[in-house]
Amino acid sequence: MLLLYLISLLLCWMANATTCSQRRKVVQAFNVHRNASSDTTPLQVGNGNFAFGVDVTGLQTFKPFGTLSTWGWHNFSLPTTPGQTSVADFTGLDWWTHGRLVNYNQPNPAENDISNWLIQNPQRVNLGNVGFAFGGVKVDESELKQTTQVLDLWTGKITSTFVYQGSSVEVETSADPGADAVGIKVTSDLLSNGKLGIFFDFPYSDRNKFDAPHVGVWNATASHTTEFVHTTDHDAVIKHALDSTTYFMSAKWSGKGTVTGPASGSHRYVLTTPGSKSLELTVAYSPSQQLSQTTYKSMVKASRTWWGTFWNKGAFIDLTGVNNANATELQRRIILSQYLLAVNSASSNPPQESGLVNNGWYGKFHLEMNLWHLLPFARWNHFELLWRSTPNMYRRFLQSSLERAAAQGYKGARWGKMTDPTGRSAPGEINSLLIWQQPHPMYFAETEYRAYPNATTLERWDEVLMATADFMASFAYHNASTGRYDIGPPMYPVSENTNPNATINPAFELAYWRFGLDVAIKWKTRVGKPIPQEWLTVRDNLAPLPVEVDTYVTYEGIPNMWTDNSTTNDHPAMSGIYGLLPPPASGPPLNLTILQNTAAKIKETWALEESYGWDFSMLAMNSLRLGNVDQAIKYLLHPIFQFDDAGYPVGGSRVPTPYFPNSASLLIAMAMMAGGWDGAPGLHFPKGWDVKVDGFTPAM
Ligand SMILES: *[C@@H]1O[C@H](CO)[C@@H](O)[C@H](O)[C@H]1NC(C)=O
Ligand SMILES: *[C@@H]1O[C@H](CO)[C@@H](O)[C@H](O)[C@H]1NC(C)=O
Ligand SMILES: *[C@@H]1O[C@H](CO)[C@@H](O)[C@H](O)[C@H]1NC(C)=O
Ligand SMILES: *[C@@H]1O[C@H](CO)[C@@H](O)[C@H](O)[C@H]1NC(C)=O
Ligand SMILES: *[C@@H]1O[C@H](CO)[C@@H](O)[C@H](O)[C@H]1NC(C)=O
Ligand SMILES: *[C@@H]1O[C@H](CO)[C@@H](O)[C@H](O)[C@H]1NC(C)=O
Ligand SMILES: *[C@@H]1O[C@H](CO)[C@@H](O)[C@H](O)[C@H]1NC(C)=O
Ligand SMILES: *[C@@H]1O[C@H](CO)[C@@H](O)[C@H](O)[C@H]1NC(C)=O
Ligand SMILES: *[C@@H]1O[C@H](CO)[C@@H](O)[C@H](O)[C@H]1NC(C)=O
Fold first, then answer.
1. Residues 562 and 590 in one domain
2. Are residues 281 and 395 located together in one domain of the fold?
3. Closest protein CA for atom 9 of ligand 8
4. In a 3-state reduction of DSSP, which class is residue 398?
5. Residue-by-residue DSSP string for 590-637
6. Fewer CB atoms < 10 Å away: N or C end of the chain?
7. pLDDT digits (tens, 9 = 90+) for 418-475
8. Burial of 527 by CB count in 10 Å (0-12 exposed, 13-18 middle, 19+ buried)?
9. Closest CA to 238 of 267, 263, 218, 205
10. How far is the CA of 154 from the centre of ligand 9 (A)?
11. Cβ 74 vs Cβ 136: under 8 Å
């Protein structure tokens, strides 16, 4: 043991840039301290597939923050409207598409009820709340004195203390790194005299598109049921049934105790453990009735090991040698973002925009956001977290995506948009017409191949890339008068604010189609299989990028690009062609003058105060490639691009908080600053910044 320890110290010491003890110092300098509950964000412990959000008590005592999982979902009952009582009754809408009628998965006014049902169902379930019960007395947060709380990022543990009626309470909260379970330790005299217990509560689902900051309703008690299925003096299992969704909560505690309940008109149960001043409790949630679970002590140990390995293994940026408030703020954001993405996004399903904090878009995930969410795991050398979902989720959704394309008369697989774990894409005009999620598999595959250029990588992506490229080639429309292949109409570009029937050849999608087909073509060469002629024909005859007044514009023929403020808002995706995407590997090169002009026009005219999310990171990456590091830093610290005291990305006027694509995109941009890109590898930080980086490879 000692020998192993010494070897690991030696390895740390040999790693030239950031030693393990230095990493620990940097990480823990950004431990989160609170002394009151936030109205908007919890502190969380979790593991990517499960997270437990807490208020200032270290539990969910005053604020019912979420206990969210990858597997917990619920359907409301289907409508009873005649003709709209089953999923099969939904028929969508037909739109003209290059001279033929194509059926799109859009809400049909004649089928309002089933359309809405398909949008609102299933929703992600808040599995339950665990909080302090004060011996039957209703207590307000203001009655707690000397509240302190710290989230230790290095061990994944939250320690909270407070004084209630003169007695101190200490609470430690950790999550199991490998199970849907939380471990809680409470130390207080109040436990032994029965003035302090633990409650378990279970909400019903809500129909809100944005169910934030809290998920569920607690007063619809008649709509769902809870019951004991097992109880002894050291454990209890409660079954929760919401319509056809059923799952179990299993609690185990040290010493002897009793769970009673539910209190009338509620689904609240209370655990009391008189006779001891200390309580160790584990609470696990599972769709199956599972009684065995790890002890509190082994859970805490596993959490410490998992997080220690996480921080030591991945890539690292140390800005603490830079004496500048901007560097300190960036350091804070990248440390907290790494913690939050591992807790909220490292799941076996694609992550949702608000992770496992609360529900945005009913808790569903958006496949066009997937690249932002998951790419940081690759760029920061945590492929093990990327591989939890990717590429297997593309394989899981392949059959339904092949069917979606075939029903519309296309070859290959058309990936869905706002998706639930079955792979079904929710009806919506934008949902059905957005296309920039299509080439994402190529981006993931190529990124993975650069890190692991071997047969395993080639094999596991081949089928998905083939089906994706087949769709992309078949979707491009051969324009007989120009001889070019056009993209759209109808379609929505990244910015979702154009007329879909007029949108043709958008800059970002054209560039991304070329990138995707280039990767697919290279892939076929690598696996030694023939390249489908159609891929080559389409790639080599793609319409040129739209240019007006010496700038790249949103789409070909867009009226008044830079003079009409209705076009200079939403996502400035043309900056992504030389930010998120590498320069083209085929076809005409990008024109640097036009790129510079475009960046300048965006800076001058864009309604950035209405922008949100990853716009700032995308603009920062564009600035980096154009050689303007200071502008990149300005974008990353733009006043609208906000992260709260615990690092949660603030959503703003159009999306709820948290909006994790912000955190993820920040990490992608920072990886580019730390690793450079092909042709310009190495560091790209402002002059005079003494930065240490470790473990980055150049971006594409
Ligand atoms: C609580 O935290 C806030 C913000 O960090 C701080 O300004 C305040 O002084 C703290 N209050 C106490 C009583 O510690
Ligand atoms: C919700 O209903 C859909 C459509 O019948 C079904 O595919 C899905 O599995 C259901 N999900 C849950 C959680 O019940
Ligand atoms: C687009 O065209 C379809 C007919 O193909 C029409 O039903 C739809 O309303 C049009 N959409 C817009 C936004 O103009
Ligand atoms: C639950 O509370 C909400 C908000 O106060 C209220 O609108 C709703 O009618 C209540 N529902 C029930 C079933 O009591
Ligand atoms: C390819 O690399 C991955 C990651 O290191 C490894 O798991 C896999 O075994 C490798 N495959 C081959 C064929 O070497
Ligand atoms: C062919 O391309 C031209 C130029 O982009 C465009 O005006 C025309 O509408 C396209 N034709 C069809 C049938 O889409
Ligand atoms: C780039 O675009 C500018 C502005 O339109 C033009 O003057 C220049 O010739 C172009 N450069 C190349 C290499 O095409
Ligand atoms: C565009 O400008 C008009 C007139 O100045 C203004 O009323 C409107 O709010 C602006 N719209 C946007 C999206 O900024
Ligand atoms: C920090 O960044 C802001 C905006 O990008 C800039 O105005 C300011 O000068 C920078 N501060 C320091 C100390 O470099």
1. yes
2. no
3. 565
4. helix
5. PPHHHHHHHHHHHHHH--GGG--TTHHHHHHHHHHHTT-HHHHHHHHT
6. N
7. 999 999 999 999 999 999 999 999 999 999 999 999 999 999 999 999 999 999 999 9
8. middle
9. 267
10. 29
11. no
**Domain boundary, last residue among 604, 633, 654:** 604
Per-residue pLDDT for 18 more than 70? no
| Cβ of 597 less than 6 Å from ligand 7 | no
Ligand 3 atom nearest to 93, measured from its CA:
7
Q: Report whether 77 contacts 381 (CB < 8 A).
A: no
User: If DSSP codes are grouped into helix, strand and coil, which group holds residue 35?
Assistant: coil
> Does any domain span residue 23?
no
Chain position carrying tokens 């808002």? 569
DSSP 545: P
Dihedral of alpha carbons 449, 451, 457, 460, sign: negative
Instruction: Report the atom number in ligand 9 closest to the C-alpha of 325.
Output: 13
Q: Number of structural domains, the chain?
A: 4
* C-alpha 454 to ligand 5 mean position (Å): 6
Residue 4 lies in a domain: no
Same domain, 474 and 563: yes
Ligand nearest to the Cα of 480, by number: 6
Claim to verify: residue 97 and residue 153 sit in the same structural domain: no
220: Cβ below 6 Å to ligand 4? Answer: yes
CB-CB contact of 695 with 381 (8 Å): yes
In terms of domains, do 338 and 457 share one? no
Q: Which domain range does residue 94 map to?
A: 87-120
Ligand 3 atom having least distance to the Cα of 499: 13
Q: Which tens digits make up the pLDDT trace of 139-195? A: 999 999 999 999 999 999 999 999 999 999 999 999 999 999 999 999 999 999 999
Considering the domain architecture, whether residues 465 and 584 belong to the same structural domain is answered as yes
Q: Whose CA is nearest to atom 2 of ligand 8?
A: 565
Nearest Cα residue to atom 1 of ligand 9: 326
> Strand, helix or coil at 508?
helix
The CATH number of whichever domain residue 55 belongs to comes to: 2.70.98.50
